[in-house]
Automatic annotation (TrEMBL):
GO terms for molecular function: carbohydrate:proton symporter activity. The chain crosses the membrane at residues 18-38, 58-78, 90-108, 154-173, 253-279, 291-312, 321-342, 354-374, 395-416, 422-442. One of its GO terms (cellular component) is membrane. Keywords: Membrane, Transmembrane, Transmembrane helix, Transport. This is Major facilitator superfamily (MFS) profile domain-containing protein.
Length: 502
């Protein structure tokens, strides 16, 4: 990739501070992933089942999915909140709510307390999920934006993997601690978790040029941000209704909500939430074998997110998602066909090869998702909106994700119980449909600048002109930059000073 920018400005090597900030902010994804994974193991633990009086599939689904209703509320609330207090403080507020919800779950003495804790925890996760990808998008230069937001997905699958293996280990505990310990462990990582223009300049310099406020790339980025802020203060969208008034922004909202909703309908959380039940239906009987297979599935998710980190900004969003849909749809079709032809019968003469083949298809399904829909489902909404609509647009997309997640969490245990292998054929069909929608309606957004994004979505007018005015300027010489000390310098004067000193 070339290091040249259009105005003759060399792009400096990205500072380690960018990567540190991106990774640190992804702790919210770790918590989200952990909670996704931890309940799948707890649902099959004997002491949990006994303590809560063996809930039927409908109640099991509601215990899992009420967390997602909370996330739906948190996702909607996160947009206005982050606009008022900023992304960073909004993330901190989510951490406090997370503590409260986790404490209620860990100490729950009845189903009502357990579900209340999961609801509050869901609110915090909804806030995390909206703010973290946006925060990472805003921190990162365009050529690294996809990789930066993929760290969010990497953190999610890492959290899932950790939860799976902790659940496997705690299954050996012969008391209520077998399920209280995995829930309480979530408190540990959560402990870790708007400004003046001179501070903004210094921050950009630290992130992209090792503190050099006169670096041409930093000054170009800084002036573009200031131009955007000035424009957005006059044109910022104050309500959700305003997001739908502009045809360009409305189109982006529907695309963002669509991709987040489809990320759930392709079936990944059906597998993650109910993995032990799925593996049991494929012949891995007993709590420990099914939890072991679930743990292996978590490792698969982590390993296959790494290629996305490395290549997603080269391959692009469309190709990545479409290849994932092919892998996921094919694996669901094969798994369903195997389980239909050779259903597992307890105590019967079962076809072991067919059952292991179905388990292998679940691993391939998870691997395909981790390389494609997993990261792209978060990247696309975070990068397509103009700043004036980003908080509310991403908030609506996040809320859609959790609303659809809630539906999947509710219907999956019922489907597994009633139509068995038909569940796999259902998700094969959803992968085909979602892949066709991506192919037909979703444009490529890889590496686009703010101006190019406006042109792509047909905004034009003042928004594109404001950005173009900045992009067309030369920032290499004679642009005054105010430092913290109030001194003004320019690149030409700096060069003259250096010549004099020599």
């Amino acid at each position: 990739m070339s290091n040249e920018l259009e105005a003759g400005v060399h792009r400096p090597k990205t500072s380690w501070r960018v990567y540190f900030a991106v990774i640190f902010s992804s702790i919210g994804g770790l918590l989200f992933g952990y909670d996704q994974g931890v309940m799948s193991g707890i649902l099959v633990m004997e002491h949990w089942v006994e303590y809560f009086h063996n809930p039927n599939p409908v109640w099991r689904g509601f215990i899992v999915s009420i967390y997602l209703l909370g996330a739906f509320v948190g996702g909607l609330a996160a947009g206005p909140t982050s606009e008022k207090i900023g992304r960073k403080r909004s993330i901190m507020g989510a951490t406090i709510i997370f503590w409260f919800g986790t404490s209620m779950q860990t100490g729950a003495t009845n189903v009502d307390l357990l579900m209340a804790g999961r609801f509050f925890q869901g609110i915090s996760i909804g806030m995390y999920s909206m703010n973290v990808p946006v925060y990472q998008s805003e921190l990162s230069p365009a050529h690294l934006r996809g990789r930066a937001i993929t760290f969010q997905q990497f953190s999610i699958v890492t959290g899932i993997m950790i939860a799976f293996w902790i659940g496997y280990g705690c299954a050996y505990i012969q008391s209520d601690a077998s399920w209280r310990v995995p829930l309480g462990i979530q408190l540990a990582p959560s402990v870790v978790l708007k400004g003046r223009t001179d501070e903004a300049l210094e921050t950009l310099a630290k992130l992209h040029a090792n503190g050099d406020v006169n670096d041409p790339y930093v000054r170009k980025e800084f002036d573009e941000i200031m131009e955007q802020i000035s424009f957005e203060e006059k044109n910022a969208m104050k309500t959700y209704r305003e997001v739908f008034r502009s045809p360009s922004t409305r189109k982006r909202v529907f695309l963002a909500m669509g991709i987040q909703g489809m990320q759930q309908w392709i079936g990944i959380n059906a597998v993650l939430y109910y993995a032990p039940f799925i593996f049991q239906s494929a012949g891995m009987t007993g709590t420990l074998p099914s939890l072991l297979a679930t743990g292996v599935n978590g490792v698969v998710c982590v390993i296959f997110t790494i290629p996305a980190l490395l290549f997603i900004d080269k391959l692009g969003r469309r190709k990545t998602i479409l290849s994932g849909s092919i892998g996921m749809g094919t694996s669901m079709l094969i798994a369903g066909s195997l389980l239909r032809a050779y259903p597992y019968v307890e105590g019967g003469n079962n076809n072991t090869q067919a059952q292991y083949g179905a388990v292998a298809m679940m691993f391939i399904f998870s691997a395909s998702f981790s390389m494609s829909w997993g990261p792209c489902g978060w990247i696309y909404p975070a990068e397509i909106f103009p700043n004036r609509a980003r908080a509310k647009g991403t908030s609506l997309a996040t809320a859609t994700n959790y609303l659809m997640n809630f539906v999947i969490g509710e219907i999956t245990p019922v489907m597994l119980d009633s139509i068995s292998y038909g569940t796999y054929f259902f998700f094969f069909a959803t992968n085909v449909v979602c892949g066709l929608i991506i192919y037909s309606f979703y444009p490529e957004t890889k590496g686009l600048t703010l101006e190019e994004m406006e042109i792509l979505f047909g905004e034009g007018g003042a928004e594109a002109e404001a950005i173009k005015a900045v992009a067309d300027r030369s920032y290499v010489s004679n642009v005054p930059v105010t430092t913290t000390a109030g001194q003004q310098t320019s690149s030409s004067s700096t060069e003259e000073k250096e010549k004099t000193e020599v």
